[in-house]
Amino acid sequence: xxxxxxxxxxxxxxxxxxxxxxxxxxxxxxxxxxxxxxxxxxxxxxxxxxxxxxxxxxxxxxxxxxxxxxxxxxxxxxxxxxxxxxxxxxxxxxxx
Length: 96
Fold this sequence. Notes:
Layout: E1 2-11, E2 16-25, E3 34-43, E4 49-51, H1 66-91
Antiparallel strand pairs: 1-2, 2-3, 3-4
Protein name: BRISC and BRCA1-A complex member 2
Family: Belongs to the BABAM2 family.
InterPro entries: BRE
C-alpha cells in the first residue's frame, strides 16, 4: 500500500515553480519513500503538468535518524530539481 503523504511547493522568491510529491509505504521507514517532481510551468501536449519518474535512487538507510534521512533527501532533490528544470526547458513547451 502506498500513501501520498506530502506535497511540497518548489519556490523561488517570486513564485511557485512546481511541487514535490512524496509517496510512503506502510513499511516506512524500513522502505524508503519515493518522490516525484511536477512542474507548474511546463505541460504535456495533453495539457497535463510535466512530472518526473518516481525517484528512489538516493542514499537511504532505515537505521538513520530522521534528521539524516531528511538531509539526504534534501541534498538529492536539490540536484534533481536542477536536472528536472533542464529537462523541462529542453523538451517541453512552457505555459505563457
